[in-house]
Every structure is written in structure tokens, then in C-alpha cells.
Design brief:
It is built from 13 helices and no strands. The protein is mostly helical and 242 residues long. 80% of the residues lie in helices and 0% in strands. This is PF04018 domain protein.
Length: 242
């Protein structure tokens, strides 16, 4: 069982890494599909100073290193191995590639919630699908341009980008595109421009420390409704890629 879970988290990490390379697809979406999202959020919610220890065994148990490390290493491997391939497809077969991704996301959005079974028994779940779809389309229509990027804007962008890494539906890189700073952030990473990277990383850290516990708490209390909300977000993200 333990070995199977390691393989499961390794596969999930690999596909999460691939997903985060493409604006429009969320790594958290992959976590939901592999059914590791609640546990992953549980692990991230424990990232508090009071939980840190000099005992490796204690840290390993608290943060489930046997599962988390394979996931992280697989994500890194995916980013290294697949970035050139995905870039080639986007540059040479963009329309076909995005159409394929869009259709795949729509199908997966239905699979996540076992749509045709659950929706017949609880009609009120239509509300959450509609709400998620609407939010997804609204976010997709935003067009923010920023020529002179302030430190506050970079911090805010980091918070939003990492927040959408935690929430199924829209990837962090999509939010960077929406916010108009995808190219500056990519350029900053490539050129080690710490004037941009440090405020952005600070925003990501703020999101990492503050939001996982809140998201997990809400998810635990309203799991089914949120799955339908997430499904709407995922479906609308797929439609926007078509």
C-alpha cells in the first residue's frame, strides 16, 4: 500500500509539473483527479514555524516526506523534461494542441464529480457548477496591463498566482497572463532579476503560509459543493482554450 501511494504521488507530481507549464491548466486540478488534493492541502496547512523541528524523523512524519518528496521530485523532473516539448507544440501546433487540452479538461471536469450520477439526485448542485463556470469565464476575460510594475503589484501577483496553484481550475501561470506580467516574471527567472523575483516570491510565501489551512477547512466542510464549483472552473478553463 505504501509503495502504491508513492507511485501514485510520483505520477501525480509529474503531471502536476506538466500542468503548471501550461497557462490554463492547474496543478491542483491534477491533484483532484489523482484524489490526493485533500491530503496535499493537509500537508501544506502544517507549514508553520511551530511545526519546524531539528528532528528529521519528526519532520518526515509530520510532512509525510515519503509521499511529498516523490511528488516534488517528479514535478521538477516534469518541468525539466517536458518544457521543451510543450513549447514546441505551442509554437508549431498551438491551435490543435490547445483544442486537445480544452476538450480533455472538459471531460475531466465531468469525471471529477461523477457528473451524470450525482447531478440527477441533487439538482441544487447546478448552482455551484454555474457559479464556478461564471467565475472561470470572468477571470478569463480580465485583461490587465502593467507597464510599470510596482512592488505591491508583484506581491499581489505572487499571492494570486500561488493561490490558483492551490485551487483546482486555473493555473498560477494563467493568472500571470491575466495580470499582464507573465513575460516579466519568466524573464526575471531566466535573468535572475531579484528586484522582481523577491517581491513575487514574498507574495507566493504569504499565500503558502496563510491559505492552505483556510482552503482545507472549507473543503472539508463543503467537499461535494466545492467539487462542483471546481468542476465549473475546470470546464470553463477548458472552453476558453478551444
Amino acid at each position: 500500500m505504501i509503495e502504491n501511494n508513492r507511485i501514485k504521488y510520483s505520477l501525480a507530481g509529474f503531471f502536476m509539473g506538466v500542468a503548471e507549464l501550461i497557462p490554463g491548466i492547474s496543478g491542483a486540478t491534477v491533484a483532484v483527479i489523482f484524489k490526493i488534493y485533500p491530503n496535499l492541502m493537509t500537508i501544506l496547512s502544517k507549514l508553520r514555524i511551530k511545526h519546524l523541528s531539528f528532528s528529521l524523523s519528526s519532520l518526515s512524519k509530520k510532512f509525510q516526506f515519503d509521499l511529498l518528496l516523490p511528488l516534488i521530485f517528479s514535478m521538477i523532473a516534469a518541468i525539466i523534461l517536458c518544457s521543451k516539448a510543450i513549447n514546441f507544440l505551442l509554437n508549431n501546433y498551438e491551435e490543435n494542441f490547445l483544442t486537445f487540452l480544452g476538450c480533455l479538461m472538459i471531460i475531466l471536469s465531468l469525471q471529477i464529480i461523477n457528473f451524470f450520477k450525482g447531478i440527477l439526485h441533487q439538482k441544487k448542485l447546478f448552482i455551484f457548477i454555474f457559479l464556478g463556470t461564471s467565475i472561470g469565464f470572468i477571470l478569463g476575460q480580465l485583461d490587465v496591463e502593467s507597464e510599470n510594475i510596482s512592488i505591491f503589484y508583484l506581491i499581489l501577483s505572487g499571492v494570486l498566482a500561488f493561490s490558483f496553484f492551490l485551487i483546482p481550475g486555473i493555473s498560477g501561470s494563467s493568472m500571470l497572463v491575466v495580470l499582464g506580467i507573465y513575460s516579466p516574471i519568466i524573464g526575471a527567472i531566466a535573468n535572475f532579476n531579484f528586484d522582481i523575483l523577491i517581491p513575487f516570491a514574498l507574495g507566493c510565501l504569504i499565500s503558502l503560509l496563510l491559505l492552505p489551512r483556510l482552503i482545507l477547512s472549507i473543503y472539508s466542510s463543503y467537499e461535494q459543493s466545492l467539487l462542483y464549483l471546481f468542476s465549473g472552473l475546470i470546464a470553463s478553463s477548458g472552453l476558453l482554450l478551444l
